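I had to read the description of the data format several times before I understood it. Each protein is reduced to its one-letter sequence and a matching series of backbone shape codes. The format is easy to grasp once an entry is in front of the reader. For illustration, here is how one protein appears when written out as sequence plus structure tokens:
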Amino acid sequence: MKKQAILAALASTLVVATSVSAQDRDGWPESFTVGTASQGGTYFAYGSGWANFVAENLGVSGGGEITGGPMQNMALVHTGDLKFGLTTLGPASESMKGNSPLAPGMKMDNVCAMFPMYETPFSVTALASSGIKSISDIPDGATIGFGPAGSTSDTYFPRMMETLGVNFERRNGSWSDLGGQLQDGLIDVVAFAAGVPVPAVSQLEAQTDVNIISMTDEEAAKILEAFPVSEFEIQPGTYQSLEEPSRVVSMWNFAMVNCNVPESFVYEITKLTMENNDKMVSIHKAARHSVPENYDKNNVLPWHAGAARWFNENGYSIEESQIKQ
């Protein structure tokens, strides 16, 4: 009788577990796609790896998609063409206010924050053979690669260069393509805005000598006053050629989600990501900053209720007014 009772209890437990599981997954998509950016950049490596990590652990098919970067991701997630995406807070703010060059006047307010990713440093790279060791060394009329059109780099770096008095010709393309053009002498400089180490720079310095260019105190002060950025140092060892800290500026990135995605799905993804930082770092080193303590760096996007629930349950305070209702 005892054995029968135990078996009956186990069967009851399994039924309850199955029922709870089915309820928790109510409305979950059969698959999902994460908007990243161009190949050779950090977004693509981070986003694709993260999507695969989520898919493997939650049993939902998912993957990364090459896009034009933060601005386009905001548009795709707002409209629901993609459920998830990666964005930088500067472009996110402009998009929410209706100032995106991709859709002028459209306020992209159906996008919610999920979790902090990392800071995007704005860094300049040139071939050592060019003799360019500082921003002031960039010759008049130099051709500068600013990444994909509409990317964070393309949105802000040209304006930064103009603020610093640099006269340049603008070139767009994927980070991999621009790295190749720099190596072939077709452009003079690449102005990267991506989490470090940038795969394209790591690949480039494995094949030739490069200069990772720092800002002077005066240059950094001008940029900090004119743009929504903060100070940042690229540490020695990030790149083989970097022997001392490189002073630059940076902007925070967040993973985002369409606000209509089911709360339970977003909760489970946030939980998985925030509680497994070692796995995230194995996907990309920049993820060492993808920790819950950095949630307060978001001062732009409303929080998804599912993400906010995980943060509030774990001692991080997100007020009701900050959560998309």
Notes: Residues 1-23 have pLDDT under 50 and may be disordered. Strands lie at 31-35, 61-65, 84-88, 111-127, 142-145, 168-171, 189-193, 210-213, 230-234, 246-258. The first helix runs from residue 2 to 24.
